[in-house]
Write a structure and sequence with these properties.
By secondary structure, the protein is mainly beta. It has one helix at residues 89-94; strands spanning 19-22, 40-41, 45-62, 68-84, 103-105. The chain has a 3-stranded antiparallel sheet with strand order 2-1-5, with no helix packed on it. Strands 3-4 form a two-stranded antiparallel ribbon.
């Protein structure tokens, strides 16, 4: 049976939805588990949201005779872009732009 209460759309948490933590920080295993305390919110983001671009590279594995039998992922670079609207000293000093590649974005 149809139920309008089962319909939803992804939406950010009020007050900002981008959190960062050092790489290797334990991630939650489901949507009800709280983020590890090492995650820090980056505050408000523009309504453009966050953009993720990636460029995976693959390598073909060929069998004797020339048939391609497997396409293996060789690498995959991810780039995230967002515009932060909050610029508190805690955020600016804790997460300088040059070092954000050292953090897990969640």
């Amino acid at each position: 049976m149809t139920n309008v209460n089962n319909v939803s759309a992804g939406k950010p948490k009020i007050g900002g939805a981008v959190f960062v933590a050092p790489i290797g920080t334990e991630l939650p295993e489901d949507v009800t588990t709280q983020l590890n305390a090492a995650f820090k919110g980056l505050g408000y983001c523009s309504d453009d949201g966050i953009t993720n671009t990636n460029s995976p590279e693959t390598e073909e594995q060929k069998a004797w005779g020339g048939d391609t039998v497997l396409n293996m992922q060789a690498s995959k670079a991810d780039t995230f872009k967002l515009k932060l609207l909050s610029a508190t000293a805690a955020i600016v000093n804790s997460y300088p732009v040059a070092s954000l590649s050292l953090y897990t974005i969640y």
